[in-house]
Design a protein that fits this description.
7 helices; oxidoreductase; Nitroreductase; alpha+beta; Nitroreductase-like
Length: 225
């Protein structure tokens, strides 16, 4: 698939088929994605691929802690609640998703169920936990590198028929993820990618988020036209 078509067609998947993903497919995805740009070729990333019982353990404990009112305990610094235009965009996509799923504004149980799905990593059969070497903190360069790797993963997955969603909710309790996946203390847990074969009957999978027109965030400097 040509790159432009791949990018335009890819979307976040929040409903997955109950079908295992072969290890060889994940290995091929990572083999492609690791060609992502990396500052000074430092390649600060690590990928911990979870499935089966370990993933179920992370899912169960993360959801139980967050549903029980536990505080978020992530390795990376959180931006807190969004405000202004960022909050508006967040609300807009939530409205689209709730609309597609038939969840009414005053339907608190269903809205809570949707939040819990996020804590369960949307019941995906595979989760790729992305970490970087702690010795590189503080600094945004390694974060940038990890973002490039992450985007490479989701594009390579889509090209192979797999859907994914970059899912911070699934690792709200990074301590649990670290314990279950046996992630060393010298690695910082940044995010995870929930992955699996898309369930075409799941309404939210058809939702596409809006993007601003180029003129709202792009400036051209020095062009004659």
């Amino acid at each position: 698939m040509e790159f432009e078509t791949l990018v335009q067609s890819r979307r976040s998947v929040r409903g997955f088929r109950n079908e295992p993903v072969p290890r060889a497919v994940i290995e091929a995805i990572i083999e492609s994605a690791k060609r992502a740009p990396s500052s000074m070729n430092t390649q600060p990333w690590h990928v911990h691929v979870l499935t089966g019982h370990p993933l179920e353990e992370v899912r169960r404990r993360n959801m139980a802690e967050m549903a029980g009112g536990a505080k978020v305990k992530r390795d990376i610094i959180s931006h807190g609640e969004y405000q202004g235009v960022h909050r508006t965009r967040q609300v807009d996509i939530a409205k689209k998703l709730f609309g597609a799923m038939g969840i009414a504004r005053d339907d608190k149980p269903m809205r809570q169920d949707w939040v819990l799905r996020g804590f369960r990593q949307f019941d995906a059969p595979v989760s790729l936990v992305l970490t970087y070497d702690r010795v590189l903190d503080p600094g945004a360069v390694c974060h940038f590198d990890l973002g490039a790797l992450c985007y490479g993963i989701v594009l390579a997955a889509w090209d192979r028929g797999l859907g994914s969603v970059i899912n911070g909710q699934g690792i709200m309790r990074s301590d649990i993820v670290r314990e279950v996946a046996e992630i060393p203390e010298d690695e910082v847990i940044m995010t995870c990618v929930a992955m699996g074969y898309p369930d075409d009957g799941f309404a939210a999978n058809a939702v596409r988020s809006d993007r601003e027109h180029n003129h709202q965030f792009v400036r051209y400097v020095g062009f004659a036209d």
